[in-house]
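Need fresh eyes. Consider my entry:
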Amino acid sequence: MAAAWIVVLVTLVRGLAVAGSVPTSKPITTGKGCHIDRYKSLPPQELASFKKARDALEESFKLKDWNCTSPVFPRNWDLRLLQVRERPVALEAELALTLEVLEATADNDTALGDVLDQPLHTLHHVLSQLRACVQPQPTAGPRPRGRLHHWLHRLQEAPKKESPGCLKASVTFNLFRLLVRDLHCVASGDLLRTSTPPEST
C-alpha cells in the first residue's frame, strides 16, 4: 500500500510541475524535454492568425497619436550577433515583453482580445518550450555583458519609460521578426546541442 501511495504522489508532483503549478525560474532539463526545434517555422494557419492579429493591432493605433522616446527594440536587434548561449536569453526577454503588452491590450479591448486569443496561446507555448531548453543561470555567476546586457536593460526599462501606445506599436512592428527570424535562429539546432550536458566517459 505504501509503495502505491508513493507512486501516486510522484505522479501528482510531476503533473503539477508540467502544468506550471510549481513555480520554477528556469528548469534544469536535458535535450529530452526540449522541443523548441518544432518552431523552426510556424504552420501557415498559425502565421495567418498572427497576421490577422497584427493587422487588427495596426488598425487600432492608426488613428491614435503615439511616439517613443527611444526605440524599444534596438535598431541593430539581431540574435545572430549574440553568442549561441546568449540567444535564448534574449529571445525569452523578447517573448516576455511581447506577451505582457499583448495581454494588456487584450484585457483592455474585447474585440482585439478575440483576435489575439490564439496568438497569445501560441506565444505562451513557445515560451514554455524555450524555458524547458535553457539551463538555469547561477545566481552568483557572471551577469550578462556587452550587447546582451544593453538589450535586456532596454526591454526591462521600456514598460517604465514608454507609453502603452509606444509599447503596443513596437511589439506589433516587431512581431514577425520575432516569429520568423529570432525564433528560427534559436530553434535551428544550436540551442539543442548546447543544452544537453555531455555524456561522461
Confidence is low (pLDDT under 50) at residues 1-31, 191-201. The longest helix spans residues 110-133.
